[in-house]
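User: Teach me something about this protein's shape.
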Amino acid sequence: MSTSDTAADFGEHAARIELARCLDVCLDCRRCVDLCGVFSEAIDLVGSLGHAESGLLTPLEQDRILSLCSHCDQCRDDCPHRPGVGEAAVDLPAAVEGVAAAVHRSGRTGWRSAFVVRALASDGAMRWARRFRGPLNRLLRGREGGVSRRALSMLIGVTSDRPVPRIADQSFTDWFGLREPAIDAVAPSVLVVPTCLIDQFAPEIGQATVTTLEGCGVRCVPSGVICCGGGLLESGQVDRFLRVAETNLALLSEGDCADPIVVLQPGCAEVLRSDYPRVLGQRAAAVASRVRGAFEHLDARSSMEAPGDGPSLPDVVGVISSPRAAATGEEDLLIARLEGRGVRVVRIPSGPVGESSAALLSTRDTAESAPGPAEVADDVPLVGLSVLVNGALERRLGRAVEPAQNLLPALFPAVADA
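Assistant: First, the predicted structure itself:
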């Protein structure tokens, strides 16, 4: 069952029944129980009912389970009961999206809960927000739970209970448009998808990635795509997600282009690689096959041999293992590169991590499941592979290492210094 089918055919009651059916099969199977908090929470809640079925869970209890979903699709990828493989035809991610879509259509979430995600998916809306970034950022810098943050939450829906990123003075797209090309036009090229979070809140990460790619002899070309639309899908705005996905598919397919597509956030790469073909069908498969992460593309072009010189690396690094980064393979590539350079890597499970624009609406901070000081030595730098994860680590522990800015030049020094 596709997300579009779920959104079109299910009311909320039917969507919740389908979710309960999928959870019952999952809890009998338990193959994915260690993947994320969805399954452990479901086991605990259903277990509290005795030998009951998931259908007896209340909507509030179901929503507690759904809030832990990272939308990484790992439970679908290796499911022995998925459609076309098992008789039960379980598609838990589609069931989760079906409930979100039904709740959104009901109007109970209110327009403010959708405003920020919609704005980030709209270039025009963000250009308007950039004009007023001064007062907006002053409100965003207010104390969590304070008067200014509560006022902003009432106005546009951004949570008042956790820190959120500030709007950058210059977007990545504007920076890219003003710069002179740094590499010959005949060089192998890639289409760059910055993602809305990097474009609007952390353009320095995109700038560092482009610099490293160009040092590797790769010509970076703007794709015209900024937002993948993943936040729209997660928040139940399926119709808007379909419009964004159709537009992006046309841009990425323009002129029968076959260049690799480098997406600067792992979670967004997973949306283009997995969700687009699932929702839009086979016509999106060709585009999905070209999607790469920055680490993935550099790794494929460079040997594993450690160079004789270049920036130094720490002796030990803690890598925050987030579900979406794990699903794309970017996390494993990073760890392999670090270990190949003699760095001892401590892989630290993150638990539920909000990585898309929809996380800006959540009161659950991405730092909630980050390691505490007792779990890892105070002098060990911590690395996450998404803007929101690293921001949460920096706020909580003050020692986050942004990989594009700090690790790419060290892991690919001959590339970065070329």
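Now, about its shape. Confidence is low (pLDDT under 50) at residues 1-9, 355-374. The chain is about 50% helix and 5% strand. If you'd like, I can walk through any region in more detail.
User: That's plenty for now, thanks!
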